[in-house]
Amino acid sequence: MKWIFASLIFLISLSANGQTTKDSITVYYFMSEECKICQYYSNLQIDLYENYNDSYTSFVGLFPNHFSSVPAIDSYKKKYQIPFTLKKEFFQTKTKKFDAKITPEVVVYNETKEEVIYQGRIDNSYASLGKLRRVVTQHELKDVLESLKQGSVVTTEYVAPIGCYISLK
Q: Is 59 within 8 Å of 29 (Cβ atoms)?
């Protein structure tokens, strides 16, 4: 299924009192501590966090699978030195809201406007399950974050993530 998320981003707007405000953006990573592809992306997640985390953009890792436990998530955070919040998503609220099916899958969400800016894969590191590309040529998430940082138009085509299935309750 192909979706195109095209958004003209007006991150700076005027509030009621004439002050400028900036929209709040959250990058949601759907993750699994057992997924080798999630583990592979740990360094890139850290890099993106270090380059794009600011007072308007936050990062959250969500673990929606029933087998994920808080101690296992804490261990994953420590092992891979993840600097952003990781949470067990007990009720799969965000998983269902965004219809996430795979780990790792990413959703860039405008909390202010309550709209998805981008959803899909992080980049094209994997050609298929177990098949890592030698050269990464597409960087969807980084491109979206850079567009947001620059205040540019975000037009990114949905590309299905490759990874591990989320077990829905």
A: yes
